[in-house]
Amino acid sequence: MNEKELVRRSKDGDEEAYGALVNAYKAKVFNMAYSLTRNIETADDLAQEVFIKAYVALPKFREKSSFGTWLYRIAINRIKDHLRKGNPAKHIPFEETMSDHTAQEDEIVQRERQMEQQQKSQLIHESLGMLPEKYRLIISLRDIQGFAYEELARILNISPGTVDSRLHRARKMLRKKIEFLLEREGGRL
Amino acid sequence: MNCHKAERLLLKSFDGLLDKDQSEILNQHFKSCPECSHMREQYRTMLGTLKMSSRGPDPMPYFWERLQPKLRDKKMFNPWALWKQWGLRAVPVAVFIAIILAGALTFVDLGQPDELSSSEAFLLQDQNPLPDTSSILDEERVEDKNMMLIFASLEDLQSMRRKIP
User: Fold this and answer.
1) Helix (H) or strand (E) holding A28
2) Residue B114 burial (10 A CB sphere; 0-12, 13-18, 19+)
3) What is the reported pLDDT for A51?
4) Which pLDDT score is estimated for B114?
5) Among A152, A183, B95, B142, which is 20 to 30 Å from B58 by CA?
6) Which residues on chain B are in Cβ contact (under 8 Å) with A18?
7) Are A68 and A25 spatial neighbours (Cβ–Cβ below 8 Å)?
8) Domains in chain A, please, with CATH?
């Protein structure tokens, strides 16, 4: 069953069809929330709220854009609301392992690399959390989530030219922030 | 090429938006500018780390199972869905009833009230509100009219006088 059919059935109240849409998009919506909040529970709560909001608003969805774009727009608005209500991103160390890439390497070297990578990641996310909301958002969507320029323009409701200039400014700003933190702590990127 | 433009092109290169010539010019610049070369390494690390963090954790278990009861709660009272289901169907019925009522009011004679007030009789039936004065006003000669008015006024005054025993 294609997405349009699932959307049509969901509009008619078919819970199973909506379940299929949720399963298709939950990881993306969750990661979007996680990249901006850095907290698993908060991101999970936000993702649930996004799907509830989308379910309630589904009869009003006119299918001018794809379901995904429409859903991401709801997600962005909900996450923005959350961040504005005084809930900044938490800087929890990123518990990511890269075992696939380093499986054959020596365990100590691997652990050192992991720690180094975690520190870098923590520093970068800390710096990202210091950026103004619109720059944080565009970096998160482009450089973490990997959305294309055109899709970003549709989700954020801005022109592709604005996406380009905002992204450029955001990346420059992020590098400056990282440099500032590194200088303060005496490290290097 | 200056360093400012090099930075712009460098950032575009990470999105794969540079053509072959631009890439060539940029690489030439990096060979001659150690500062920009260092900046390129910084951007590489920064964007690479960000990209890696896209492989973040999964949503918490039983996402759909936890969501389902919340959706059912919302479904129980959803004003929009209720309007969509019943409101839109009620519109033609309401219009039909309004037409019937309007027709009934237009074509059915509800009848006149039994007694009219003096104002209604004056306005609707052209009745003279002062029937006693019509005989005076109908007189053709002015002298007769004046005399009759004098007598009429005297009659009114006599009725008001105290009776002499």
Assistant:
1) helix A15-37
2) exposed
3) 96
4) 65
5) A152
6) 71
7) yes
8) 3-84 (1.10.1740.10), 106-185 (1.10.10.10)
Q: CB contact, 8 Å: B77 with chain A? A: no
The two tokens of residue B122 are 């004056």
In chain A, which stretches have pLDDT less than 70? Answer: 87-105, 186-189
Encode B77-129 in three state secondary structure: CCHHHHHHHHHHHHHHHHHHHHHHHHHHHHHCCCCCCCCCCHHHHHHHCCCCC
Largest CA distance in chain A: 60
B110 Ramachandran zone, left/alpha/beta (phi>0; psi -120 to 50) = alpha
DSSP state at residue B139: -
Distance (Å, whole) CA B106 – CA B110:
10
Closest to A56 measured CA to CA, from A80, A40, A78: A78
In the chain, the amino acid numbered A154 is R
Chain A residue numbers with beta carbons less than 8 Å from the beta carbon of B80 are 56, 59-60
In 3D, which of A37, A4, A6, A39 has the Cα closest to residue A22?
A6
Q: Do A40 and B60 touch (CB under 8 A)?
A: yes
The count of CB pairs under 8 A between chains A and B is 108
Provide the pLDDT confidence category of residue B24 given band limits of 50, 70 and 90. very high
Its pTM stands at 0.66
Residue B128 pLDDT exceeds 70: no
Task: Test B42 with A178 for CB contact under 8 angstroms.
Answer: yes
**For residue A162, how many other CB atoms are within 10 A of its CB?**
14
Q: Tell me if A22 and B42 make a contact (CB, 8 A cut-off).
A: no
Enter the ipTM.
Answer: 0.79
| Distance between A85 CA and the closest CA of chain B, angstroms | 23
Entry field: residues in chain A: 189
* B26: Cβ contacts below 8 Å, ≥ 6 apart: B1, B6, B9, B10, B13, B18
